Amino acid sequence: MIRVSIIGSGNVAQHLVSAFMKTDAVELVQVLARHPEHLKQLLDSSQIISDYHQLQEADLYIIAVTDNAIAEVSKQIPFSKLVAHTSGSIAMNVLSDHHRKAVFYPLQTFTKNKPVDFSRIPIGLESEHASDFEIIKQVASAISDHVFAIDSAQRKALHVAAVFVNNFTNHLYQIGADICNEHQLPFDILKPLIEETTAKIMVLSPAEAQTGPAKRKDQQTIEAHLAILNDANQKAIYTLLTQSIQKHE
Amino acid sequence: MIRVSIIGSGNVAQHLVSAFMKTDAVELVQVLARHPEHLKQLLDSSQIISDYHQLQEADLYIIAVTDNAIAEVSKQIPFSKLVAHTSGSIAMNVLSDHHRKAVFYPLQTFTKNKPVDFSRIPIGLESEHASDFEIIKQVASAISDHVFAIDSAQRKALHVAAVFVNNFTNHLYQIGADICNEHQLPFDILKPLIEETTAKIMVLSPAEAQTGPAKRKDQQTIEAHLAILNDANQKAIYTLLTQSIQKHE
Q: Of B147, B29, B45, whose CA–CA distance to B77 is shortest?
């Protein structure tokens, strides 16, 4: 059985721990955490450590910490081993040269205390040595049904795409909520529409699913909408996204 | 039983017809359509007409046609009756003065041949005469569990909010797909993330759900992302939405 240890105690680390605890194909050896209290509910306290000197040998170390700390954390691992980070935007080669390097990138937005079905989360994999790819693939396949190879350039592009469909989409929800609030309407009114927007994209291409005044080139409605918006920033976003829809072929 | 006739044969008309055919609380009398062939699957051909002279009397006429045609269509109805349009952005008073005016606004994105559960669709109602409100409320409640009063100013604002969370969100999906395509990645990789983004907003506020480099003020990642984007339009949207997230409190 492949022995895996995790370094980190944030959202990604916690969700990985939960996923590995549910599979028999991987042995979760230890979790090294600056904040052990975040992990107490997830595994036995004997498996939680906070000092690199307590690290046991494992087949794979997964570093799930904030981007800027990855390089330094990899230097602290006191063995020469297979080491992967989980970041979408950091190059594989920031990992210390005394390790065999890899990337283990789960493409998802993790929220504290909100369980996710890891089997549906795509995991993008990259390894410095071809012989290590099989190891990280086995580990990823133990928790996800959607495992794929991805090089660093593709991974960075995928991360940007994820910012558009996740972070920026959520900000559009925020603007929708702000407009509702300004006009004494509950944000809940928009939720069925938000759900259907997502349901459509599961069965149609974005081009097929696109509707609205921008797509129809309905200039009268566009101008009426801009007149309703009081916030200069909302107006600028409305204008730019309307133009972008109209330019898109 | 309330007798309702519909004028129109587009997406909204078709979905309303389907919904009314499923309820016993409303009698769908006739549908007047320029394109009767769009309705053949939905109701008996004897109920489909294409000439205003064939219109029978009903308690409520619902005009579900393109915005610019609403005023003209309302003039063609050869009775003085209760008449509602279904538009998010058109004032109630464009309806002909020889009718009692109303609005019957289902807040949803309708796709041809994709069934929707009408019971979950919010319907915003407005009537010129208070005594008519009960009629449109009964009709709306026969097909939806989410019926609410909304004045014209609120309705127009809600329509703008809908453009942000539906049309503009779909365009962000388009950009995500374009970036995937440019880097030889299947758009399907993003779908679990899109679903989770929506699942989060059902249980968290947009502010609680917001994550990402903009929210974290992670300037290094933001600059790396802008360097990856080759399209000037994508860069402009990335920059504007990042600034908007950072300005938002």
A: B29
Return the pLDDT at A64. 97
CA dist., res. A82 & res. A84, Å (int):
7
Interchain proximity B171–A200, CB inside 8 Å = no
Question: Which of B116, B214, B244 has its CB closest to that of A196?
Answer: B116
CB A84 within 8 A of CB A63: yes
- Residue A26: in which H helix or E strand, if any? strand A26-32
Beta partners for residue A4, in sequence order:
A28, A60
What is the distance between the alpha carbons of residues B143 and B122, in angstroms, rounded to a whole number? Answer: 10
Sequence letter at residue B60: L
Inter-chain residue contact B167 with A211, CB threshold 8 Å:
yes
AA letter at A102: A
Amino acid at the residue B207: A
In DSSP terms, which residues pair with B101 in a beta bridge?
B83
Which residue spans within chain B are E strands per DSSP?
A: 2-7, 26-32, 48-49, 60-63, 82-85, 100-106, 122-127, 146-149
SS3 B175: helix
Question: What is d(CA A176, CA A123) in angstroms, rounded to the nearest whole number?
Answer: 31
Class of residue B236 by CB neighbours under 10 A (exposed 0-12, middle 13-18, buried 19+): middle
Quote the CA–CA distance of B77 and B67 in Å, as a whole number. 17
Query: Which amino acid, B218?
Result: D
Q: Which of A114, A122, A221 sits opposite B189 (nearest CB)?
A: A122
User: CA-based Rg of chain B, rounded to a whole angstrom?
Assistant: 22
Does A193 sit within 8 Å of B165, measured CB to CB? yes
B interface mutation test: which of A244, A245, A247, A249 has the most B CBs within 10 A? A244
For residue range B122-146, list pLDDT tens digits in order: 999 999 999 999 999 999 999 999 9
Residue B191 CA neighbour count, 13 Å, CB half:
15
Task: Identify all chain A residues contacting B168, using CB atoms and an 8 Å cutoff.
Answer: 172, 237-238, 241, 245
Domains of chain A in sequence order: 2-150 (3.40.50.720), 155-247 (1.10.1040.20)
Nearest by CB to B229, which of A160, A179, A236?
A: A160
Whole-model pTM: value is: 0.93
The Cα of A168 is separated from the nearest Cα of chain B by a number of Å equal to: 7
* Residue of B69, B73, B72 lying closest to B61 (CA atoms): B73
Structure tokens that stand for A113 in this block:
């205390």
Cβ separation of A204 and B111 shorter than 8 Å?
A: yes
Confidence of residue B18 (pLDDT cuts 50, 70, 90): very high
User: Is B114's CB within 8 Å of A167's CB?
Assistant: no
